[in-house]
Amino acid sequence: MVVTHCHLDHTRDLEALVDLNYRFNENNNARPGADAFRELRFFLSPAAHSKYAEYLKHTRCCSQPELMYGGKDKKQVSFHIEVRPVRGFHKDITSEDEAIGLVLTLKKDGGEPLLVGLTSDSRSDPSLAEQFAGCHVLIAHLGTIETAKELLGNGLKNHLGLKGCFDLGQKVQPKLLIIGEFGEELLESRLEIIRVMVEYKAENTACILGADSNLAIGLGGGLSVLCCHPSCKQLPTKILLKDVMPTIGEDGLFRYYCSKHSI
């Protein structure tokens, strides 16, 4: 688990995870020190570490919460996964510019590893392109849309915005660019935002998508999107990036359907 900074929309699930882990151990009659006892591993930005480290240790959910500084050494999660913290530029409740983004290195048994980048919340900064260079998949947090004054100036003070997402996509040129964290005020314009970004996407970027709970990416055997139709949940159908056609459902969420279920 990674907590990138201390805004409520990025931390509100932490106590629920602790509670679920507690119930798991209780249901299995597992006590600390027993083989069946499960701890979770937490990587925390400096602000998150000062807020949650003692709580996680006291609840016995995580005996050693790990501090993560942007731009510092990568962490080995497993034999196949490494996490490298990226310095973010974001002011939260207790800190300024101590937020972190992430680059995940997903190693295969053979061949080139897959790099997946996540900006989390950050304003635009020239160093971001270098920190995310080489990412095959890049998830960029939009936040909201700039005013005309902000577009002509330095952009948003605490988020990438449309200008920041566009600039970062042009410089990094990931194969798949995913735009996440749309502000609630953008509920009715999210699809149009994606369409505009697709029209002006970088040459090496095959696809730009909007992120929400219906988006699942197939990472094995080449990048793809998994059909979110209920009939495809048991045996997910892969959609090639060139064939993805996002729509918006009645609930305002993106829909990604295979040819069998597309309207």
Q: Can you put this structure into words, describing what you see?
A:
- The chain is an alpha/beta fold.
- It contains six helices and 15 strands.
- It folds into three domains: 1-68; 72-211, Metallo-beta-lactamase, Chain A (4-Layer Sandwich); 212-263, no CATH class.
- It is globular, with a radius of gyration of 19 Å.
- Strands 4-5-6-7-8-9-10 form a seven-stranded mixed β-sheet, covered by helices on one side. The protein has a three-stranded parallel β-sheet with strand order 1-2-3.
- The protein has helices at residues 14-27, 46-58, 127-131, 148-152, 161-172, 190-199, and strands spanning 2-3, 43-44, 66-67, 75-78, 81-87, 100-106, 114-118, 137-143, 176-182, 207-210, 217-218, 224-226, 238-240, 247-248, 254-255.
Q: CATH fold name of the largest domain, please?
A: Metallo-beta-lactamase, Chain A
Largest sheet, strands/sense/barrel: 7 strands, mixed
Number of domains: 3
SS elements, strand count: 15
Which CATH top level class of the largest domain fits? Alpha Beta
What is the succession of H and E elements? Answer: EHEHEEEEEHEHHEHEEEEEE
Average pLDDT over all residues: 93
CATH-assigned homologous superfamily of the largest domain: Ribonuclease Z/Hydroxyacylglutathione hydrolase-like
Oligomer category: single chain
Q: Which strand order spans the largest sheet, edge to edge or round the barrel?
A: 4-5-6-7-8-9-10
Shape: globular
Helix share of residues? Answer: 10-25%
What proportion strand? 15-25%
Query: How many H/I helices?
Result: 6
